[in-house]
Amino acid sequence: MPRFLFSQVDVFAPAALLGNPVAVVHGADCLDDEQLAAFARWTNLSETTFLLRPTIAEADYRLRIFTPGGELPFAGHPTLGSAHAWLEAGGVAAGSEIMQECGIGLVGIRRTDDGLAFRAPALLKSGPVEPEVLNKTLSALGVGQDQVLRVEWADNGPGWVGVVLDSAETVRSLQPDLSKSGELSIGVIGRDLQGPADYEVRAFDPGAGEDPVTGSLNAAFAVWLIPLGVLPPQYTVRQGTALQREGQVFVTSAADGSIWVGGRCVTVVDGQLELPTDR
C-alpha cells in the first residue's frame, strides 16, 4: 500500500492541545472521493484535509476538506492547519501570499506576527433569516429576544446563522438544545468587557455538536459586522472555553478592505500513514 505524509495540527492554539485539531494528508492525488471520505470518517475529527496538485495556475496547492459526514467547500481552521503542514513539508509559495485552491475558489494565506492568517471569503448567503429559522435558532440556544442584538445569515460555506448576543457572559452561559435547531449551524458572538479577548464566540452544529475554534464562523462574523461598525477593524476572539480549550483568533482589516483571520498553529502528530488504493 502507498504511504502518505501525515500531519495533525492544532489550530488557533496558544500551545498544543488548546486549539482545534485538523488531520492533513499530503499528496493525496491518487485517492478517489470514497477513499477521502472513508479516511475522514475514520479520523472522526471535525475536519480532515487532503493536499493535492492545483488545477488553477495561480494556486500553490489544492485542498479538499471533509467532515465525517461529507465535503465542505471551505473551512477556516483546516485552511490554516493545512497551510502550516504544507509549509513544514517544504512548500514554497510562488507569490507573496500562499494561494489555496478549494471549493469556493482561491483563498489567500499569509504569515503574520500571530502565525498564519487567511483572507476571509465573501459570504455566499447573507441577510435576514426567515421567521421559522429565527424561531428555531432562539429555541435551540434557549435565549430570549431581549438577549439578542442581531440574527442574520452569515454563510461562507458551512451554512452559518450568525447571532450577536448582548454579552460574552451570555455566550458562555448557553446550554443549547441542538435537537431544536433542525439542520441549522449556529454561531454566536458577544462582547467581553473584561477580557482576556475582546469577544467570545461559540459554534454549534447539529451533527458534530460544539466546535472548539472555528475559522469560517469568525470570518463570517467579521465580513458581516465590521462594515456595519458593529465590530471594530481589529479585535481578538476567545473560543472553546466551554470545552476546556483556549482558542485565540486574531481578526484584522487591511487598508485595501480585505479581512484576515489568523492564529497560531502547532504540529502535534507528524509521520506517515498507509491507505489502500487501486490506482
Helix and strand layout, with pairings?
Layout: E1 3-11, E2 20-25, H1 33-43, E3 48-52, E4 61-67, E5 70-72, H2 76-88, E6 98-102, E7 105-112, E8 115-119, E9 125-128, H3 131-141, E10 148-155, E11 160-165, H4 168-173, E12 185-191, E13 199-205, E14 209-211, H5 215-225, E15 234-239, E16 247-253, E17 259-263, E18 265-274
Parallel strand pairs: 2-3, 4-6, 11-12, 13-15
Antiparallel strand pairs: 1-2, 1-18, 3-4, 4-5, 6-7, 7-8, 8-17, 9-10, 10-11, 12-13, 13-14, 15-16, 16-17
Helix pairs in contact: 2-5
Tags for this model:
alpha+beta; 18-stranded mixed β-sheet; 5 helices; 18 strands; 19% helix
Please describe what this structure looks like:
The chain is of the alpha+beta class. Helices cover about 20% and strands about 40% of the residues. The chain is built from five helices and 18 strands. The chain has helices spanning about 35-45, 75-90, 130-140, 170-175, 215-225; strands at about 5-10, 20-25, 50, 60-65, 70, 100, 105-110, 115-120, 125-130, 150-155, 160-165, 185-190, 200-205, 210, 235-240, 245-255, 260-265, 265-275. It has an 18-stranded mixed sheet that branches. A hairpin with a 5-residue loop joins strand 16 and strand 17. The N and C termini lie close together (about 10 Å).
